[in-house]
Amino acid sequence: MMNEKQVDLKQAALIGVNWIPCSGSNTLKVFNPASGELLGTVPKLSEEQVRYAITTAERAFNSWRKTSINERCAVLNNWYQKIKENEERLASIITLEQGKPFAEALGEVRYAASYVKWYAQPALQDNGSAMPNGSEGESLKTITEPVGVCAAITPWNFPAAMLTRKVAPALAVGCSMIIKPAPETPFTALALSELALLAGVPPGLINVVTGDAQLIGDIVCTSKQVKKLSFTGSTAVGRHLMRACASTVKRLSLELGGNAPFIVCSDADIDKAVEGAMQSKFRNAGQTCVCANAFYVHDSLYDRFASAFEKRIKALSLGLGSDPHTDIGPLINERALEKVEALVRDAREKGGKIVYGGERWAESERWYLPTLITEATTDMRCVQEEVFGPVAPLVRYSDEDSLIASLRAQDTGLAAYFYSESLKRIHDLAAELEVGMVGVNTGVISDPAMPFGGVKSSGLGREGGRQGITEYLETKYIKLCY
């Protein structure tokens, strides 16, 4: 259960073993999105301090890379245990600074911990191979080595899970990490990093830098000491970071914007599809990169699906994240609310029918009502763009081939969902959709044992699964003659 009185916010940056406190007015303010209350501040680090953090990470890396796999995994297991022991406190911090209901925040903490546990397995790591191709007197082999100092820029919507998904595999293979958390949610990153130190992670392997995003981003992108950058966020920022990293030809992992279609095929089980739609659309008030964006419902099922979906949407409860009955929390800030309002206004002007919602909550303007839009069309912005809010546009379709062709023409390709009872259709659609992840008859796809990532403008590389390990490794070929 959430207990705000037991939450101690670490209002400092972390470099090595040193906590860098706030100094004067050179700080970033962090607010509770539900109330607007000031939660605390974190320092705006100077260029010199950020560069010192990188040098500190490099020194720690040079030592850590020499430790055994078993030793590194043991430390990760200790971190996992610390997270589990403090899961309610961590969840309370997430609810305070991000706004999601406590039950969802607790689920995120457990999901974050699962990545640490997953990467604490020595058997996951590829340590190279010997090749039998050489001539007599020759030995051909490959070995893998950690890339070095890495940087992670994490988002505000999942401040715990997106951190551990990047940091755990990096530490497992021998890398060190510079973490730049979102300015809206730095306290979760700081709490997790404090637990890492208590778990025995050597100082300098995890450094948390707070402050001006442009300054920090430019430094890590252009630093020759930083060998890899992992970023989760918008496509626009991802493109900027990609260009900035070109000067040092840096390794990149980019998990960028999505526009996940949710297809209800003509042979779908409506009850299951509605359940999956609720899971996918309204988690974290629709503020997830893989949540269903637009719903494409076959004409033969459209009215029945819309009616059943409407009933479930109307039953959602809005309120504070600390209230155990709350389903929908606030949006992260005023800018997010204004974007959702603009998308709904555009849909209304283009003939969309607002069946439910379509405005801010009467009891607090920091919330947006869960919204159902029927008779949505593909020229509406809420269909073309990532909504990142609790808005569900329903598009009617009759020709599946035309629908798939239009979806393949989209620039994004992170995730897609569809419901069908036909094995042939399941096989064909899963292959035809140009996305990195597909949910078939489910609205929940994330799993630490599986690779997470997109194609096209939705990103590069993968996090999670065995693939998440290789993102932090370089392969070296050695030919030995004797």
Automatic annotation (TrEMBL):
This protein's name: Succinate-semialdehyde dehydrogenase
Family (UniProt): Belongs to the aldehyde dehydrogenase family.
Annotated keywords: Oxidoreductase
The keyword Repeat appears for this protein: no
PROSITE patterns: ALDEHYDE_DEHYDR_CYS, ALDEHYDE_DEHYDR_GLU
Pfam family, one: Aldedh
Enzyme class: oxidoreductase
Enzyme Commission number(s): 1.2.1.16
GO molecular function: succinate-semialdehyde dehydrogenase (NAD+) activity
Active site: 255
Annotated InterPro entries: Ald_DH/histidinol_DH, Ald_DH_C, Ald_DH_CS_CYS, Ald_DH_CS_GLU, Ald_DH_N, Aldehyde_DH_dom, Aldehyde_DH_Superfamily
